[in-house]
Amino acid sequence: MAPAPPGLPDPAAALPPPGGLVIRGGYVLTMDPAAGDLPAADVHIGGGQIVAVGPGLVVPAGTPELDAAGMIVAPGLVDTHWHMWNTLLRSMSADPSGPGYFKVMIGAGRAYGPGDIYASTRLACAEAVSSGITTVHDWCHNVRGPGHAEAGVRALAGSGLRARLLTDPAHMLVTAAQPANVDTVIVDGRVLKRAGVLTAVDLAQARADAQRALAGVRARAGG
After folding, report:
1. 86 and 94 in contact (C-beta within 8 Å)?
2. Residue 162, helix vs strand vs coil
3. In what helix (H) or strand (E) does residue 187 lie, and over which residues does it extend?
4. Which of 95, 104, 121, 153 is the most exposed place for a label (fewest CB within 10 A)?
5. CA-CA distance, 204 to 106, in Å (whole number)?
6. Per-residue model confidence as pLDDT tens for the chain (223 residues)
7. Nearest residue to 197 via CA among 220, 179, 214, 213
8. 35 phi, psi to nearest 5 deg
9. Number of H helices, E strands in the chain
10. Cβ 55 vs Cβ 22: under 8 Å
11. How far does Cα 35 stand from its chain's mean position?
12. pLDDT score at 8
């Protein structure tokens, strides 16, 4: 992969390696018909994988613990259809008397540079983590050159999510879950959201970067 465009951080240094963790005392939805739901159980994570699930798990000394009493412990949601580059433009085509989605997206999309793709995708990643989505399929149908694609990949890689970027032009956006309902998000042993707060993405900074990128897109697109 080529070096990041100016201003785009390299995600390689942003995320810590997967670590060990035990989630204690939650209502565990195993999604395994044989195991069923466990009303008060633990989940042990090691090396980025689930090691064991059950009540009263014995784990290695020094393993960090997360108290999940009174909470649901469930696999992360999977969003298979999201145009993450659209995040900057949300609600811009909501007026039924206006020009409509396609005209707005095509017009604004022409003004996007790699940095705009990065800012929009990173904000979308923050929203995904906040909502309990741990795997995303980003249908990025505004790739206008290698730099655009690399910016999208870097935003996805730096978020900690499991992600796939595809440049198919024929799909629509799916609405995410409600962020307020999701307390903690863990992907491959990394805690990406804890006690309602994102840990791998600075949400305020992502929003500020997205606002600046949107202002530039609007200016280049002629309003």
Report:
1. no
2. strand
3. strand 185-187
4. 95
5. 28
6. 334 455 555 655 567 777 789 999 999 999 999 999 999 999 999 988 899 999 999 999 999 999 999 999 999 999 999 999 999 888 776 666 777 777 888 888 888 999 999 999 999 999 999 999 999 999 888 888 888 888 998 899 888 898 988 874 433 333 234 455 566 666 666 777 777 787 777 888 888 888 888 888 888 887 5
7. 179
8. -90, -30
9. 4, 11
10. no
11. 29
12. 56
What does the domain layout of the chain look like in residue ranges?
21-73, 75-221
Q: Please name the fold of domain 21-73.
A: Urease, subunit C; domain 1 (2.30.40)
Distance CA 135, CA 158 (A): 13
Token representation of residue 187: 């992907």
Greatest pairwise CA separation for the chain in angstroms: 63
Q: Do residues 33 and 40 make contact, with C-beta atoms less than 8 angstroms apart?
A: no
153: nearest Cα among 18, 87, 161: 161
Look up residue 188 and give its two tokens: 């491959």
What tokens were used for 181?
Answer: 């309902």
Read off the tokens for 190: 């990394």
